[in-house]
Here is the input.
Amino acid sequence: MEIQLELRKFFWYSNLVKVCMNDRGETVYLKALEIQGFKSFPDKTVLNFGEDITAIVGPNGSGKSNISDAIRWVMGEQSSKALRGGKMEDVIFGGTEKRAPVGFAQVTLVLDNTGRIFPAMEEAEVAVTRRYYRSGESEYYINRQSVRLKDVTELFMDTGMGREGYSIVGQGRVDEILSTKSTDRREIFEEAAGISKFRHRKEEAERKLERTEENLVRINDKIAELELQVEPLRAQAETAKKYLVLRDEMRVLEISLWLENLEALKADARKLEIDLRNAERERDEARTKMDAIFAENEQFGQRMQEKDMEADALRGEAAGLDARAAEQDSAVAVLESTIRHLSENVRQAQSDLRESESRTGGYEAQAAEQEMKAAELEQQAAALNEELNGLLSRAQAASEQAGGAAAEAEALRGREAIAAAAAADARAEAAAVRAETEQIKARRAAALADREAAERQLEEKSREAKANRRALEDAQEEAEAAANIISGHALRMEERKKKAAALTDSRVKLTMDAGALDNRIRLLTEMEKDYEGFNKAVKLVCQAQNNLRGIHGPVASLMKTDGRYSLAIEIALGAGLQNIVVDREEDAKSAIAFLKQRDGGRATFLPLTAIRGDELRERGVEQEFGFVGIASRLVRFEPEYTHIFNSLLGRTVIAEDLDCGIAMARKYRNAFRIVTLDGQVINRGGSMTGGSTSRSAGVLSRAAELERLNSRTADMHRQLEEARAAEEASRRELDAAQYELSTAESQRRAAGGEGLRLQGVKSQFDMLLSNLRESLENLNGELEASGGRIQDNEARIAAAEQTVADRETEAAGYRAQAEAVLSGQSELLAQSGRLTESITAHKADLAAVTANREGALRRAADLRQLASELSGDRSQKEAALTQYQQQINAAQAEISQRMRAQAELKTQSTAIAERLTAISQEKIALEAERTARSRAGQEMNETLLNLERAASKLETKLTTSAMEEKQILDKLWETYELSHSDAQAQRIELESVTKAARRVAELKRAINALGTINVGAIDEFERVNGRYTYLTDQRNDVEKAKGELTGIIREITGQMTEIFAQQFKLLSESFEQTFVELFGGGQAKLELEDPENILECGIDIKAQPPGKALKTISLLSGGEKAFVAIALYFAILKVHPTPFCIMDEIEAALDEANVVRTARYMRTLADKTQFIVITHRRGTMEAADVLYGITMQEQGVSKVLTINLNDMAKELKIK
Here is the structure.
């Protein structure tokens, strides 16, 4: 049918060509050209053309040739090179410095169709439009109706106006005529002869014939192939029909068995759920007990911590007591030192007292001796007074006897005696004073010696006191520094205690976390080793890997995936998780035999040598919103399993959620399976599976959890070791801080004790120095007083000696007077003289005795005074001694008090030590109890692990049961495409499950006995048999069409040969005539290179200008060649005039005379052909009726100016 339609279409086009040829003489011309955005014409520009000659002029580069390019382009030109560009986009205005580029180029060609040159067009005017965008899209319109490029090409074909016609003549077309290859000229002659469309249709018919022959070969090949298939398919179809009968019976039985198994699984699942709830309850109870044990352990730990805190407090208190005891010891030592110094002071004071008593006794003895001497002298004076009184009585009696002269002499003698006695008294006084002075000087010398000794002792003790004061200041500074150090150590101690407590808490927490993590890993590892979660068959095969060859393991154990994908991958794989990967088909066969022998159930095996799978390659799916990935790319596996996972997951897409999955499924028409991250499924074909799922019960979830826990355990144990190391370091820092604190406190105690000792020494030095200064002051006072008394005594001695001299002079005077009075009385004078001498002697003796007595009394008084002074100093010493003794007693009392306090402190220390021992015992008891509770906790932990293992196994069994349920449901769907409710509708009552299973086995054996079943063979046989019949009929139709096409091609070739021969003859004659007319003589002709093959041979042009020999065109000059080419074009136009002809500077190579000839000849043709000439030549411009001037006032932008020369001639009245 297709070939027949093509033939009818071909005949329609042939008739169209004949109509066009018959009507070519009627008027049709180019009315207007509309350009917008094309090359240098960004603005909409319209050029209106008349039926006469239009010339387009302008300077080079102004855009003249762009007009001919626009006409060529709108008529379907596809070569950018022919349009003088590098790429088609170059036809769009590219912008200038002042103008932006435009987005498209559009050209519209308006043609007059009143002569019906386009028979298919009813309109009197035909507008052809082409539009091109920068994106590369092209649009074509005919009378504003969108058409194809082919429609535009066919519209202009054989009219001379097409892109291969001769209506547009540029330098390129002239070059084709002037080409040295004669075959390059054929297109122009064929277009002029009107056989271009014939050639096009012939070529199209030849292509159709070639395709028909190819179809015929292909049909014959298919028929031969089908002949090989029909008979085998007939046998297969019969076998398949038998299979369908068996399968239908097996289908009902198998569905019923599966449903029975499903109900059994559900019953088991209900029991498992009950067992799981009980196990979870027991597990929760064990966990509660475990938590209680942990809480008790924490309480034990807290109590032990409290004991530690109490012990630390007691140790601190003990340290304080020790410090206080040390202080007491230091104070006692200081007091004892003070007592020793005070005792030394007492001994010194007692020695001073003994010395003072000795000196006072001496002074008392001397005073008593002087007093005794004074008493004796007083007795002597009394005797002397009695003797003197007797002598005076005698002298009185003698005087009375002597008479007046004698009385006077006696009176004078008495006066003399008195004067002599006064002299004697003065002499005695002087002697006494001298003796006293000597004693005072002796005492002064002793006092000076004592003062020197006291000054030396004071200086020495001052130096010792100063050194002691400096030592005391150093001790006080050291004690103060030690106190500051202790404050700093105490702060650091407190911080380190807090840090140690925090690190201990962190270590305990990490220990508990690491223990829980290890327990969970151990539980999951044991479950993996036991293949928990896998069905019985998979467990048996995996546990027998050492006895079976080529077993790699279940799919679930050969892959890993991130936690966020595990649920989706698990749902996507479904029962495929439990498929077992093996090396070869033989290994799978051995494993199946192994399961049969042990009645181990059924398993699916995936041989690496047989499984092949490809990933989904749906374009654009990876850019869809909510696309997570192709499932096979979201799992990690060894490269050898690539085909396995591509087969299982390669055509499954993982989506974010169900909305995204539904959107993707709709867009791609359910072409692949989609699984969401939360486990909802959109199956290929559109069915959906979903609901709630457990995120932790699956094999893959368990593997993901185990991988995650294993990745955490190293970090957890590293953190635990770091915590232990940090705790140990903190403990060492705490011990070091405690040692530093104890050392600092010892230093402070030592400095304090030394300070107290030095303070006592300082007090002793202060007292000693005070005593020494006081003694020195007493000695200085004594020396000062003795010096004054020595001076007084010396004055007294001088006064006494003066008195002696005066009284002796006075006595001598009285004696002389007495002698004068008694000059005549010698005996009386002698007696008187003797009495007087005796009286004088007695008075002298009495005066001497009296003076000695008074001197002795004074000396005794002085000695008494010195003794008294010494007694006063002794009182002070005794008071100091008493004070020293009191201080010793006070120190001893304080020592006793401190010893009692020390004893009390020792008692308290002993009590604290006993309490610390008790606390240690309590801690040991608590530790033992905590150890016991820890063992109980470990036992409970093991119990909890067993319960968790049991619960996990039950959960895994429940999951496995759910998976097996899902597998049954999946098998119902995958095998029979039945949902559970639909399967229930087809279920039959089974007499016995065992008998039904046996019958299913028999049916399977019967089906296996049938061999390879091709259920599709029935339909395939019908299809192939029908196809065979159809192709046989088709082959007959194709052979018939081939014959018809061969005839048509033969007919077209004959018509083309006939038409071309006729038209070539007309063209040759026209060329000869036109050549003579243009050149003014000479001759020219057209020759076929092979007249026997006129449709394929080349065409030679030979010309003989006037006065020259006949030669081929290639031997002519450039101007002659161009003129010959123009003559050929004009000859063609005379035979087959085109509606319009555009000439682009074809006369550029001619001289001015030939330009004028060309223009005049063009005028002769203007009645049948509309000429549009792009030119620079004056002769051509003068022949034109309308001038269009192309200017470029703005750089890169062309503008059009119009001048109608005919209208101007009329206005100017030019003929």
